[in-house]
Design goal:
The complex is a heterotrimer. The relative contact order of chain A is 0.08. Chain A is globular, with a radius of gyration of 26 Å. The N and C termini of chain A lie far apart (60 Å). Helices cover 40% and strands 14% of the residues of chain A. Chain A is an alpha/beta fold. Chain A has 22 helices and 17 strands. Chain B is α/β, with parallel strands linked by helices. Chain B has helices spanning 24-30, 82-97, 113-120, 156-164, 199-203, 215-222, 235-240, 254-264, 272-293, 305-314, 328-344, 361-366, 385-394, 416-419, 426-440, 478-490, 525-541, 551-561, 567-573; strands spanning 7-11, 14-18, 54-57, 64-65, 76-78, 144-146, 170-173, 180-183, 209-211, 228-233, 268-271, 299-300, 351-357, 381-384, 458-465, 468-476, 497-501. In chain B, strand 16, helix 16 (478-490) and strand 17 (497-501) form a beta-alpha-beta unit. The longest helix of chain B has 22 residues, at 272-293. Chain B is globular and about 75 Å long. The termini of chain C are far apart. Chain C has helices spanning 15-29, 38-49, 54-64, 68-77, 97-101, 104-115, 157-176, and strands at residues 89-94, 128-133, 145-147, 150-152. Chain C is α+β, with helices and mostly antiparallel strands. In chain C, a hairpin with a 2-residue loop joins strand 3 and strand 4 (150-152). The chains are: A alpha/beta, B alpha/beta, C alpha+beta. Chains in contact: A-B, A-C, B-C. Bound molecules: flavin mononucleotide (FMN), iron/sulfur cluster (8 copies) and FE2/S2 (inorganic) cluster (3 copies). One iron/sulfur cluster (SF4) binds at residues 197, 304-307, 358-359, 361-362, 501-503, 506-507, 510 of chain B. One iron/sulfur cluster binds next to helix 4 of chain B.
Chain lengths: 597, 593, 177
């Protein structure tokens, strides 16, 4: 890499772009020119650095100073102080020992840094994702070259199998075995698909991985193509990810120009190319048979398996489908070897896992940890714990297909089996921290509302059953729950889980069943006592104006239904019959005079 | 398959030897189990959607759908455990939870697969009732009513309409709980590419598709003393109507139906088979004329109403290849209001011409303005076999035990050739019997043309007449019609004569035939074969087996029409076609999900 | 959507759009498995017209030789595709987990009250249309809405009202010009 006194990295992730990072680039160049620093300083772009809540992010190296919430007006000061005088600007620097601070400090020296470890995201935030040379300088495409020149396809598969890599898209199927099955099929042509549909609410691992390091995925797919004997690959990516789409497109084009895709790659007789196919807003298209239908231009409805895609996939041909993160691990396994890869993780789950940490946690963002890290370590050490000193109630993993694990499970190590034993799943990497302010019935209802809305409608249990479950949950949260409702939920949930056609239906009841299992008392309170302990379920709460009221009238003015009355400077009152429990008054009162009960 | 290749499976703890390569459902069928099913249909692709057919397989976490899961050696299957029973019951309950509680006023009451399933699953109590979908009925079509409220989304109609019929009129739209089966853009059926074949009705397990019912109108007209009521019925109606009265498949009920129609109030009952003979005279002559003049060939038959609408939308470029002959129904109706009315000294306006047909598309045909004669619609009302059966029940007529009666004259006598019109290949066979003789002057000795019999989708045959070889093709079901038309598109000289029937099996599988009974499946091969056999038996039992030997047909020409293709014949018995929009798309490769 | 709310609106006949679409389709048709590009073609159509007009779907059917019922099935399956013209400003309200936990439903209520429209509807003046979204990938700024291409984050009931006001003002200015 070009060594210059200063190397500035601007986060060019979606969140930072939205909070204005693009405007900073121009201002920065202008200031650098003014101070005659243009030659001495490089400015690079990076994918999401995982600190979206503090964006836009600007990093100054060396020194790894991270500036957050930078505005255009801050740029002259940063340049003047930091670049000219070498005095990092305390006002804007992110002081806390943020996970990415650590990551930056240790990068290059050790494989471990803090509780995190970056394999999938090893290049994210370090290279300019739109510059193939950056990727090449970090041994990019060396793995592909190695596979093509030193290894037979069988050896590549054997290496992946030996590494113990399991699919990161959710189910954790051994990747090497999947490849072997497909390679053994006689039909041709064969296809490679990268599943970048990532429809889980609250999950953005794959988007960030592609935005930050698209070439890794391209390289992984090419290696996969070589291994199974495919010449064509597809990246199925959500249309909602324009930046990731642009970057993967660019990466494919650049790789093609560099002779790393296309005919006779690197002079070998292996040819491989990649096409992009856009999704159009259907979560179920993450399911592999639905995805295949969607790539084929049809309604994204799953079909029964067997036959599995390994035998009958895209256009009826043998097809390997892997998740973005799975693909991103391939170059590392080929380059550093299965033996090294196996040193990371647990007995049954090797390597690392990326999570999108969200919800009631101090540091929300992307993290990557070795398998076997515990939930507690993630939430408290990496995530910085629960804000405002609140108590944690549960961790939800696996998104709408997953389950809620209560506090007593926080020491569960993250691997496929342990999470399943605890009653949740690894899933694709959504992790939502839930604190005492969240109602578990409502959380379950939220996830079910999602799956019910995303059901493709093909099979009866999922199409009709999730609707009925949602109706029951809705009436429970509306204070109209009936005795026997919990049992009905269990009966329907068990049936839907066991009888649905595809993974969506089979896992849709999980959030409900796991919250019933772990938080049954909350359900019972809603049904029998008409009480929501977290004070979330609107119908079960009320707002009351207390003694602290000074009669400022602010609440009266915001109330959308004019439920509040009172003369100026006297205590106001709420007409409970009129009140729709929108909470506006509660949020408005500056004197903490309104109580939620 | 020899026994050594069989595999061993265990169903409910009992061992069975079965052939490999089948699904659990197929294997269980051979072992005396009939696992409940709904979306499965042997003629259609496997959907695996309803999940009614779930079973438990040892070692599997989830239930598997037996209609799409392959058997394997040593597999242990449980079809009837407490858990499976409850799950299956709950699945069926979920279907009816989103279904109108309408059975008593529903057209399929007592004849409904869903209803039977609800009964068999033991649903005596609802646990999960909630919101129900509601959509408007689509009444716009002359033939088919779509009532999405009763649809349980088994997808059979969609697969039928695209895989077998190749019309692709129907599709699933929207998704999840909001999924609805509809034509493109939710356009009214009448404006869609629907061929009105009624096959969606045949395969629908509920009343989500039913025919446009004309029985009330007919009952009213039958009470009108000022009208002379004339009925005709199609060949295949007699072979199928018994099923609606619990008779075994393939029982010929011709005489009973004549008698019952008289009891219903018809003054005259004629036979569409008579006009089938007439069709052969006209169409056979047309073929000979075209062969001799080199006129547009191949000549393609025109008696199937659904095929006609399909052709006008999908293959208008072949209009001049279509025989100008009206269908037997419309020929008969024309004669009722001309030849016969003259003969009987009746005002044609006072003749009520009713057709009992195996066919929903005939309702569409009857309304075609180009079939009018002297400004008069010729077929006033078409009722399907199903509607006729209902009317007979409703009027309290003892159909099964009634003493058979004969048709009226002079439009009631038919040859065996007219009879086999009802089955695929029949028109061709009948035409060959006559054309051969007209062409060569010799009598065809072996009159049963086996190459073109049977249920193969596209049949080809060669007939040598006086040294000239005629290459013919027969297709049934519009999907197969599409196959043949593509062959023609590729090579116009490949065939000289083509018979096309819109429905699988021909009219015996028509969209208006009785619903399948409790233990069979609509359009079951056995059922089609039995109905076909009834017609072949009837043909064989007749002494007159060639259309041109029908003395009443000969008399008609003598007395009224002159000769085939005469001006009079053209006026009464021929018609023309024109391209229709929306133009359909004959999709070659499209898989349907 | 309980019922198809297909209003018979004819698409403006803008010929270069049609030509561009036709060119795109012709290009797709040269590829292997041409049918499989239907979704790409629909994306392109929506890009050009803002939604999927029925006449255009008819044209696609003829050009690609795919039955209209099938195209309609695809168009209605994917929530990304719009069947009615969108408002000038399309509001996508994130209902993803993070936003939900941070009060997206309250924001939804405010928008509904302010604009008097529900999901899938457009304001009478054609200015705003509202649709749900699942995680816009800006969870750190939750709750968020996307209006056009822009994300507005850390919303409060007050802030969203302010944001809507600004768009109104902007539209007024553009009209004024
Ligand atoms: C409803 C549903 C949604 C899914 N969504 C995704 C997804 O967004 N991304 C993904 O990689 N896998 C998803 N999967 C899993 C895929 O079906 C498939 O197992 C995976 O892509 C295989 O890749 P892997 O072996 O690398 O995990 C989903 C599965 C189901 C049932
Ligand atoms: S489980 Fe749900 S998403 Fe999957 S096929 Fe059935 S209805 Fe569709
Ligand atoms: S909660 Fe909402 S409706 Fe009720 S009083 Fe407060 S502002 Fe008014
Ligand atoms: S805003 Fe608070 S202090 Fe003011 S009137 Fe309302 S309750 Fe009283
Ligand atoms: S379709 Fe069947 S179940 Fe439905 S109302 Fe009619 S008879 Fe009853
Ligand atoms: S089946 Fe039952 S409900 Fe229906 S009519 Fe007979 S007794 Fe009444
Ligand atoms: S009547 Fe025939 S063509 Fe029309 S929708 Fe039904 S199956 Fe399709
Ligand atoms: S209309 Fe009938 S055949 Fe078609 S999906 Fe609905 S229930 Fe099944
Ligand atoms: S084959 Fe017979 S029943 Fe079917 S549409 Fe043609 S005429 Fe009618
Ligand atoms: S997008 Fe910049 S830190 Fe996430
Ligand atoms: S019959 Fe097997 S799933 Fe419907
Ligand atoms: S949940 Fe709203 S942006 Fe992610």
């Amino acid at each position: 890499m070009n060594v210059t006194p200063y190397r500035i990295i601007l986060c060019d992730g979606t969140a930072c772009i939205n909070s204005g990072s693009r405007k900073l680039a121009a201002a920065l160049q202008e200031q650098l020119a003014q101070h005659g620093l243009t030659d001495k300083t490089t400015v690079g772009l990076s994918g999401c650095l995982g600190m979206c809540d503090k964006g836009p992010i600007l990093v100054v190296n060396p020194g790894y100073t991270i500036y957050g919430r930078v505005t255009q007006d801050d740029i002259p000061e940063i340049v003047e102080e930091h670049l000219v005088h070498g005095r990092p600007l305390a006002r804007l620097a992110i002081q806390e020992d943020h996970l990415y601070n650590r990551f930056f400090r240790v990068f290059g020296d050790a494989k471990f840094f803090g509780k995190q470890m970056r394999i999938t995201l090893r290049n994210c935030g370090i290279i300019d994702p739109e510059n193939i040379d950056d990727y090449l300088s970090l041994r990019g495409y060396e793995a592909l070259a190695k596979a093509l020149t030193d290894m037979t396809p069988e050896q590549v598969i054997a290496e992946v199998e030996k590494a113990g890599l399991r699919g990161r898209g959710g189910a954790g199927f051994p990747t090497g075995r999947k490849w072997k099955l497909t390679a053994a099929e006689k039909a041709a042509p064969k296809y490679i698909i990268c599943n970048a549909d990532e429809g889980d609410p609250g999950a953005f691992m794959d988007r960030s991985a592609i935005e930050g390091d698209p070439h890794t995925v391209v390289e992984g797919m090419a290696i996969g193509g070589y291994a199974i004997g495919a010449q064509q690959g597809f990246v199925y990516i959500r249309a909602e990810y324009p930046l990731a789409i642009r970057r993967i497109k660019r990466a494919i084009e650049d790789a093609r120009s560099a002779g790393l895709l296309g005919k006779n790659i690197l002079g070998s007789n292996f040819s491989f190319d990649i096409e992009i196919r856009l999704g159009a807003g259907a979560f179920v298209c993450g399911e592999e048979t639905a995805l295949i239908h969607s790539v084929e231009g049809m309604r994204g409805m799953p079909r029964p398996r067997p036959p599995y895609p390994a035998a009958v996939g895209l256009y009826g041909r043998p097809t390997v489908i892997n998740n973005v993160e799975t693909w991103a691990n391939i170059p590392v396994i080929i380059l550093d070897g299965a033996n090294w890869f196996r040193t990371v993780g647990t007995e049954t789950s090797k390597g690392t896992k990326v999570f999108a940490l969200a919800g009631k946690v101090v540091n929300t963002g992307l993290i990557e940890v070795p398998m076997g890290t515990t939930l507690r370590e993630i939430i408290y050490d990496v995530g910085g714990g629960i804000p405002f000193g609140k108590k944690i109630k549960a961790a939800q993993t696996g998104g709408p297909s997953g389950g809620c694990l209560p506090e007593q499970y926080l020491d569960t190590p993250i691997d496929y089996e342990s999470l399943a034993r605890a009653g949740s799943i690894m899933g694709s990497g959504g992790m939502i921290v839930i604190d005492e302010d969240s109602c578990m019935v409502d959380v379950a209802r939220f996830f079910l509302e999602f799956t019910q809305d995303e059901s493709c409608g093909k099979c009866t249990p999922c199409r009709e059953g999730t609707k009925r479950m949602l109706e029951i949950l809705t009436r429970i949260t509306a204070g109209k729950g009936l005795p026997g409702d919990i049992e009905k939920l269990e009966r329907l949930g068990t049936m839907i889980r066991k009888a649905s056609l595809c993974g969506l239906g089979q896992s849709a009841p999980n959030p409900v069943l796991s919250t019933i299992k772990n938080f049954r008392e909350e359900y019972e309170e809603h049904i029998h006592d008409k009480k929501c302990r977290a004070k979330v379920c609107k119908s079960l709460i009320s707002y009351e104006i207390g003694e602290k009221c000074i009669g400022c009238g602010a609440c009266r003015r915001v109330c959308p239904v004019s439920a509040i009355s009172g003369a100026a400077k006297t205590r106001h009152t709420i007409d409970q019959d009129k009140c729709v429990r929108c909470g506006m008054c509660f949020n408005t009162c500056k004197f903490e005079a309104i109580a939620k009960g | 398959m020899d026994n050594s290749k069989k595999i061993t499976i265990t169903i409910n703890d009992k061992q069975y030897k079965v052939d490999p390569g089948q699904t659990i459902m197929q294997a269980a069928d051979t072992c005396g189990y009939r696992i409940p099913r709904l979306c499965y249909h042997p003629k259609l692709s496997v959907e695996g959607a309803c999940r009614v057919c779930i079973v438990q397989v040892e070692g599997m976490k989830n239930f598997v759908a037996s209609c799409c899961y392959p058997v394997a050696d040593g597999m242990k299957i449980y079809t009837n455990t407490k858990e499976v029973r409850q799950a299956r019951r709950d699945i069926v309950e979920l279907l009816v939870d989103n279904h109108p509680e309408d059975c008593h006023t529903c057209e399929r009451d007592g004849n409904c697969e869903l209803q039977r399933l609800v009964y068999a699953m033991g649903i005596r109590h609802r646990h999960f009732t909630g919101e129900r979908k509601h959509y408007e009925k689509d009444l716009s079509s002359t033939s088919v009513i779509r009532d999405p409220d009763k649809c349980i989304l088994c997808g059979r109609c969609v697969r039928m309409c695209s895989e077998i019929q190749g019309v692709h009129c129907l599709g699933q739209a929207y998704r999840g709980f909001n999924t609805v089966v509809m034509p493109a853009y939710n356009m009214p059926f009448a404006e869609s590419v629907c061929s009105t074949c009624g096959q969606c009705i045949n395969v629908c397990p509920t009343a989500a598709f039913v025919e446009k019912n004309h029985t009330q109108e007919l009952f009213e007209k039958l009470n009108d003393k000022s009208l002379v009521k004339v009925a005709q019925f199609a060949p295949s109606v007699r072979a199928a109507i018994g099923e609606a009265f619990g008779q075994p498949m393939g029982r010929n009920m011709e005489g009973q139906l004549v008698a019952a129609l008289r009891r219903l109030g018809f003054d005259y009952v004629f036979d569409t088979q008579f006009s089938a003979d007439l069709t052969i005279m006209e169409e056979g002559s047309e073929l000979l004329e075209r062969l001799q003049s080199g006129g547009p060939l191949p000549l393609i038959t025109s008696c199937s109403s659904a095929w006609m609408k399909y052709m006008e939308q999908f293959y208008p470029e072949f209009i001049e290849n279509i025989s100008t002959c009206k269908s037997p129904m419309s020929m008969a109706s024309s004669l009722f209001k001309t030849y016969w009315a003259d003969k009987m000294k009746l005002d044609p306006k006072k003749v009520l011409s009713v057709a009992v047909m195996c066919c929903t598309a005939k309702k569409f045909e009857a309304a075609r303005p180009e079939l009018e004669v002297h400004g008069l619609r010729t077929t006033d009302i078409v009722v399907t076999t199903r509607e006729a059966a209902w009317m007979i029940k409703s009027a309290g007529i003892d159909f099964v035990n009634i003493r058979p009666e004969k048709f009226d004259e002079p439009l009631g006598l038919s040859s065996g050739a007219g009879t086999i019109f009802g089955v695929t290949g029949g028109v061709m066979e009948a035409a060959i019997r006559t054309a051969y003789e007209l062409y060569t002057g010799e009598t065809l000795v072996d009159i049963e043309v086996n190459d073109i019999r049977g249920l193969k989708g596209v049949k080809e045959g060669r007939i040598t007449m006086d040294g000239q070889e005629l290459h013919v093709a027969v297709a049934h079901g519009l999907g197969n019609a599409h196959q043949v038309m593509e062959m023609v598109r590729e090579d116009r000289h490949r065939f000289q004569f083509i018979e096309i029937m819109g429905c699988p099996g021909g009219c015996i599988g028509g969209g208006g035939q009785p619903y399948a009974t409790a233990n069979s499946i609509p359009l079951d091969e056995e059922c089609l074969k039995a109905r076909a056999q009834a017609l072949y038996d009837l043909d064989r039992s007749k002494t007159i087996r060639r259309s041109h030997d029908n003395p009443d047909v000969q008399r008609l020409y003598r007395e009224y029409l002159g000769r085939p293709l005469s001006e009079k014949a053209h006026e009464l018995l021929h018609t023309h076609y024109k391209a229709k929009t929306p133009r359909g798309i004959v999709s070659r490769s499209l898989k349907v999900v | 959507m309980a019922k198809t709310q297909l209003k018979e609106k004819t698409a403006p006949v803008v010929d270069d759009k049609r030509i561009e679409l036709r060119k795109f389709i012709d290009e797709m048709k040269t590829k292997e498995h041409a049918d499989s590009h239907l979704i790409d073609v629909l994306h392109r159509t929506q890009h050009l017209y803002g939604y999927l007009p029925t006449e255009i779907m008819d044209e696609i059917a003829q050009a690609m030789q795919i039955p209209t019922a099938h195209i309609w099935g695809v168009a209605t399956f994917y929530h990304y595709f719009k069947l009615t013209p969108p408002g000038k400003y399309e509001i996508s309200l994130c209902l993803g987990t993070a936003c939900y936990v941070k009060g997206a439903t309250q924001i939804l209520q405010v928008i509904k009250d302010e604009l008097k429209i529900d999901f899938g509807e457009m304001t009478d003046d054609g200015l705003f249309s509202l649709g749900p979204a699942r995680c816009l990938g800006a969870c750190g700024l939750a709750p968020v809405v996307m209006i056009g291409e822009r994300i507005h984050g850390e919303l409060t009931p007050k802030k969203i009202v302010q944001v809507l006001k600004e768009y109104r003002k902007q539209a007024g200015k553009e009209d004024g010009k």
